[in-house]
Design brief:
By secondary structure, this protein is an alpha/beta fold. The protein is 31% helix and 25% strand. The protein has an eight-stranded mixed β-sheet. A seven-stranded mixed β-sheet has the order 11-10-9-12-13-15-14. The termini are far apart. The mean pLDDT is 94. It binds S-adenosylmethionine. S-adenosylmethionine binds next to helix 6.
């Protein structure tokens, strides 16, 4: 495998994050080949994959295409995969994990193709070298992804391994934390770039605040991770990796921020966790934490962004006690945040209606498999904002 050879790279993301991922890829200078609900395709090399893994905030996995082929049966799958020079890609001392997504008439169980791909790879390595890697479900070493649709199949090297949304800073989770890549997408959707004050009441374990601080510093999302899938393949070059990291690090804004990031929560434990997580992420100095009811959060004079991710209760009985909080959020927006742009990340339309303000925009995201909305409110000074039902 030639680490400079340009091939298709499939970058996957959570549903709802594709547009933000696309913007990130364009910002890094890549041309978009195509985009789909949960992925974007670009062209690039294995070395480009290393940089993408280091920089991308909204991606899950960076998959480097090894082979695309016609495939009508599991026997043909084995043969085609077995032809690839795996002995030049994976050392027998490594550990292999195969992931499959299969939608083809001839197979009704995605475990079986994974097993076939694994056998084809380890048999080849065994034949050429005399020993073979162990295999299983652990994604910490070499990960290979198979996509098989009808009679077409694609085999990718997963250069991320564990999903990139696992940044490594959330040592202390709290109630219902947002996935880091989703939090980054939400912050990107608000247009925050570090040149505005940003207020994050109900911050929980601090994910939104930490992602905002990372964006403000232009600190790469992957800078806390020491492990990536690409490090476990034979073409990995430590020196090139060092160079990539040093180049990217030159663009980190280390100078003190002129603007403020304020994160509060009513729960002392949440703020304890958020502070620890921010420390691990290296951004604690940029965030002002406070324990208070959201309505007592300090909102600096002028313009800025306020983002709230309240609990949204999944069962009917959970919703009623939350109604008054949503009404109070509407009051907080109107009374304390005039001049700001307000955002509410919610998973329940009925509760959103209790806010009593008209949203100027609704953006759809998914938190796990729950369809959520990021509602945008223009909180004009004076009387322009009228009570309305946004749902
Ligand atoms: C859905 S969680 C936020 C999760 C957060 N986005 C994260 O990624 O960790 C909602 C948070 O609102 C806090 N909360 C609930 N009622 C509150 C209130 N009245 N004032 C301030 N915070 C409150 C809870 O303690 C909880 O941490």
């Amino acid at each position: 495998m030639d680490s400079k050879e340009r091939k298709n790279i499939l970058v996957t993301c959570g549903p709802g994050l594709k547009d933000y991922l696309q913007a990130e890829l364009e910002g890094l200078g890549f041309e978009i080949v195509s985009s789909h609900v949960g992925s974007v395709v670009i062209r690039g090399s294995f070395i480009d994959c290393m940089k993408l893994n280091f920089c991308l905030r909204t991606a899950y996995n960076v998959l480097y295409l090894l082979k695309e082929f016609r495939c009508g049966s599991s026997e043909s799958l084995y043969k085609q995969i077995n032809k690839l020079p795996w002995e030049n890609i994976i050392s027998p001392e490594e550990y292999l994990c195969v992931l499959s997504r299969v939608d083809t008439w001839s197979i009704n169980n995605s475990m079986y193709p994974s097993l076939k791909v694994k056998d084809a790879i380890v048999d080849r390595i065994n034949r050429k070298i005399g020993s073979r890697p162990d295999s299983g479900r652990d994604r910490n070493s070499v990960v290979v992804n198979l996509f098989w649709k009808d009679d077409k199949a694609w085999i990718y090297l997963n250069t991320s391994g564990v999903k990139l949304s696992d940044r490594g800073y959330r040592k202390m989770p709290h109630k219902a934390p947002l996935r880091e890549s989703l939090a980054a997408g939400i912050i990107m959707a608000t247009g925050f770039d570090g040149s505005q004050d940003i207020i994050l009441p109900m911050c929980g374990s601090g994910t939104l605040a930490i992602e905002a601080a990372l964006i403000a510093m232009n600190k790469p999302a992957g800078s806390l991770r020491s492990n990536f899938g690409f490090k476990h393949v034979k073409v990995f070059d430590k020196q090139i990796w060092e160079e990539i990291r040093n180049d990217v690090r030159k663009t980190i804004r280390k100078d003190a921020m002129q603007k403020r990031i304020i994160a509060t929560d009513i729960d002392e434990q949440a703020i304890y966790a958020a502070r620890q997580n921010a420390r691990t992420a290296g951004v604690e100095h940029l965030i002002e934490f406070d324990v208070c009811d959201f309505s007592d959060t300090e909102v600096p004079e002028g313009e800025g962004i306020v983002v709230i991710n309240p609990e949204y209760g999944l069962r009917l009985g959970d919703i009623e006690p939350l109604e008054k909080d949503y009404k109070r959020i509407g009051d907080f927006f109107k009374q304390k945040c005039a001049g700001y742009t307000g955002y509410l990340f919610i998973g329940n339309k009925l509760l959103a209606a209790k806010v009593g303000l008209k949203a100027s925009r609704r953006m759809i995201f998914y938190n796990g498999n729950i369809e959520c909305r990021l509602l945008k409110y223009e909180l004009y000074k004076g009387t322009k904002q009228t009570p309305d039902n946004p749902a």
